[in-house]
Amino acid sequence: MSQFANDVQKTLDADRPDSVRMSAEEAAAVGMRALKALGYSEEDAKIVVDQLIDNALCGYRFASLPRILAIATDPKHLEGRQPIRIDHETPLSALMNGNNNIGYVTCYRAAMLAAEKAKKTGFASVGVYNSYYSGRNAYFVEQIVKQGLVAFHIASAQPRVLPIGGKRPALGTNPICIGFPSDNGPVVYDMGTAALMWGDVMLHAHLGEPLPVGIGFDKDGNPTTDASAVLEGGVVPFGGHKGYVLSLAIQSLGLLAGAAFAKNQVSDYGFLFWVMDPKIMLPGGEFKTQMADLVKFVKATPKRPGVEEIRIPSERAYRERERRRKEGLVFDRKVIDSLNAL
């Protein structure tokens, strides 16, 4: 890890007058109380909170307890929800109607169903529509990979991202995640295709903090660092045209998950899982060892001056998870007070 990255993590974990330090269990209790106050069952609240706390442990501040505040004010939450149902199913696939249940719950159930099917048939495809807010893709993929399976997961969403040259959003933040089992544990690659994830925009707006220059645009398509104005506009894709093309491809895959069915709109939420047992390609079971060897080979690359270590995606998160379990989690006091006020 570079010195800059170390400094960033120290800043996030530092105790401040406007922060509060809690154990994972204490933070989970705050989350459970807040979600139950919003009408969530014990089972569904636990599914949501388990991910939110894991997000905090892994260092994703914007994707942890602050998300409950976003849920509380989201119009979809106020519309109510019905039981999740499966509209179409085969031994290899399933299309799930989330019935306006939050994506933390629907995607967890879809991920577990995809894993169950893949262990029986070798491959499975499960999609979810009529849902929203799935959280961190790597959380679901890690649960699948721990079962010895390879997982590919995308999440298309409502328009938050401006296409290159556009004045209005047309794409979701559209993350993509791929995970592989190895002899040394899950290896997970998770990335968003927006320059900044929407949850981070909402957190900046809640805290009154400015966004970096060149990322956000207001409702008229004008550049701005005001996070509250960006909430009415959108952000740009990462990496210019390359990020834009990848985001558009993920929006297309969302259609396979039924994204257009909920409101007859082609740019909407769609969550797709493709899961494979590596033994359908390598029946001798060599994949996990080969994956561990690949990681070892990459990490053995000669390092440039000033670089302490060649890291693999997800490696940092796993290390920080274990460290924060011992040291505790730091949250903005304003966020905790808002949750308690629910």
Describe the structure.
- The chain is of the alpha+beta class and 342 residues long.
- The protein is built from 13 helices and twelve strands.
- It has a seven-stranded mixed β-sheet with strand order 2-3-4-11-5-6-7, with helices on both faces. A three-stranded antiparallel β-sheet has the order 9-8-10. A two-stranded antiparallel ribbon has the order 1-12.
- Strand 2 and strand 3 form a beta hairpin.
- Helix 2 packs across helix 3, helix 2 runs parallel beside helix 13 and helix 6 runs parallel beside helix 7.
- The N terminus is likely disordered.
Summary keywords:
3-stranded antiparallel sheet; alpha+beta; single chain; 342 residues; globular; 13 helices; disordered N terminus; 16% strand
Layout of helices and strands:
Elements lengths: L2 H11 L5 E4 L1 H14 L4 H16 L8 H8 L1 H4 L6 E6 L2 E5 L5 H19 L1 E7 L7 H9 L4 E7 L19 E5 L6 E5 L6 H10 L8 E2 L5 E2 L2 H4 L3 E2 L5 H16 L13 E7 L10 H13 L15 H13 L1 E4 H9 L1
Parallel strand pairs: 3-4
Antiparallel strand pairs: 1-12, 2-3, 4-11, 5-6, 5-11, 6-7, 8-9, 8-10
Helix pairs in contact: 2-3, 2-13, 6-7
In short:
It contains 13 helices and twelve strands. With 342 residues, it is α+β, with helices and mostly antiparallel strands.
Q: In one word, what is the shape?
A: globular
Count all strands and give the number.
12
| Biggest beta sheet attributes | 7 strands, mixed
Indicate the radius of gyration in whole angstroms. 20 Å
Q: Please state the structural category.
A: alpha+beta
What portion of residues is helical? Answer: 40-55%
Span from first to last CA?
Answer: 39 Å
